[in-house]
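Reply to dn_fold:

You asked what the input looked like. This is it:
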Amino acid sequence: MKSLLHSLSRSVGIVCTLLCVVSAAPALGQESAQPQPSIGSRQPTENSQRGANLRVRVPRMDREPTLDDVAGMKADDWMRTHMTRISNFVQSGPIDGKPGTEMTFAWFGRTESTFYAVFICYDHRPDLLRSHLARRENVGADDTVGLLLDPFQDRRRGLLFQVNPTGVQADANWTEPGSADFSYDMVWNSEARRTRQGWVAMMSIPFRSIRSRAKSGEWGVVVSRNLPRNSESAYWPRVTPSISGTLTQEGTLLGMEGVTSHNIQLNPYGLLHSIKQLNEDDPNNPFFSYRKLSGTAGGDIKAVIKDSIVLDGTINPDFSQIESDQPQFDVNQRYALYYPELRPFFLENSSYFDAPITMLYTRTINNPEFGARATGKIKHTNIGFLAIDDRAPGVLVAPTDPLHGKRAVTIASRVTQDVGKDSTISAMYVQRTLHGSSNRVGGVDFYWRKDRHWTVQGINVVSPTHNLDGTYSAGPARRFAVVRTGRSLFFTVQYRDFSQGFLAQAGFVSVPQVHQVNENLNYAWYPTSARAKRMHVQSYGVETNVRLAWDRMWRREFHYTTDDVYVSLARRTTLAAVYVGNSDTLQPSAYPGLTQQTNFTENKGGLVFRTAPRPQFSFSAQAYHGATVNYNPLTNVAPTLLTDDTINAALTLQPVTPLTIDNTYLLDHAQDAHTQDNVYQSQTLRTKINYQFTRSFSLRAIVEYDTVQPNTALSSLTRTKDVSTQVLFTWLPHPGTAIYAGYNSDLQNLNHSLCTELPTGGCDASQPILPHGPNYLNDGRELFVKASYLLRF
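and this is what came back:
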């Protein structure tokens, strides 16, 4: 506890010092009074902009609207008569509470089956609009309008729809206090058109794509407009960062009675492919398997009952169209890395299984054949249920292994009860069984929103485990967090306690078996002085982050501290100077080369820079220099301190409207801190090129080069080189209906012999299996065509 108090006091001291230094800078000082609005400016009153006071009725229309109804950037007589208009958008950033810099109008209406939103977006510099013809979802750097709907009006979950001036749409599953999962796809239509005065857009959202209550006539709503060149977000009703959450500030749509989303969906697919693949099912006998023009089929079925309950089933799902993961630093890591889920079946309504401890991490399910899920809301109760098998444990083993042909089965259930206006209490249970072994995790958690700034979250679970070898273990885990949200001050502190017997085989725990305290504090200023405006300064601030962990005997595991000073400018530009003060404590039980508990101090300094000065160009980079630990020493050799240099850079080029080129570069170069001998160097270069012929038809190519070059006299890392290539033609008129034609290839520096063969055949297990060599071997190649079609009844 002394270490904890010392760390917290140190963090507070650093923050206070930085606050004094930054606040003393005259160039960025705030004026003592807010500037008065100019004559004729749209200055909304506080009361008129609060969501609770903004209620608009959505009229029923006798026909569908079109963009021709807003020709000339004005609504025609029919639209003014049959639809409801909203205006007076208010900035959330960069200047909270100020009217949007450009005028925006949105018109709402509905038919029996569809909700319509038409947007008129004025822009005094339409030549500076940022808009690209891109793949669905890739509009984050563009001008957009957004519609966030809360059909249950529970201020906890919603659906986000966005469109850019080219008509490219994006949608997301929204979960408070502000998490958007853009991997979730819905079926809806969008149109947009650029004009001399700005742009117009229309969203057509079928009610059968939305889950709601047919008897309820009120929905929550938040409307937004983003102008990236100003780093500006404007909302109706006003959404201020001084209040925790977005849906907590929503307005209300009236007139939504009778909406029904009853439907049944069938989404079959067929796959034809030719594969050459290195088969490692038997680790001691690798060989190449070939399948020429083989085929498979499967699909999903969905039924929406009582408008708010969704039943899903899947048979032999396939994920051929999913691209490779975004690169991370994965060499010389002490703890496990988290990779987000990308597979469609697991993404829909995944938020129903979210808990403060990740008890269900669907990437642990590798090769399912059958699966079923039920999610939805009954009055004030949210329910989620998932059952799915996994063939991988019985496939990735030798034929003589007892697990050969066996399947794991994962079952997860979660019930969340809404309490009061914005709070919840939940219970969750997850189990994974395999050939007589089992791991079960269950417990309760809560989320309490005390007021507009403070929230409290907690969970307590326990896990009994019966292992394959007949042993048994069990133990609890808990996590508690207090969060303070505000425009200027953000603060969070959390405590995690994972016992030695706690295990979540179907979940994800990055740092197991520890007591851990995390603290984060951020304070920002928003200058209004004339000099700050000339310098395009929108905000500046300081941040400190502290993470402390102890093992089960209360011996310190690590102490990680990050402090930074940052400034944010227009055109999405941010510059930060960062100090990292880390230390790791390693035990002889984990590293036999150590004779005693050893502490390593690893201080670093770095710079972070992000900018998007033009629509055709964006760039970000993080560079650090300092110390780290060699977590991969030679056998029975003690870890040593290293001097480490890392670079993480990303460059996006969009030279013409339909072309997007994303480039990523990672470098991790480490030397012995005392001898300066090279220990390892890891590099990743990844280029993703997408050409969008139309909104539905595109060509994408990804080339990635990964290499790890260790000094084998100082590191146990393996020298590897990998070149992967993915080419994909896509025709995607809407989610569920698509044709994919692709080619995947992977080259690794593997010796072509694969192993040292025995005279009787097979591999010599005493010699390296899959030995590395100087040349490349293609260990996987696939050519495929996949087609799917969505049927809705």
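The longest strand covers residues 287-305.
Hope that clears it up.
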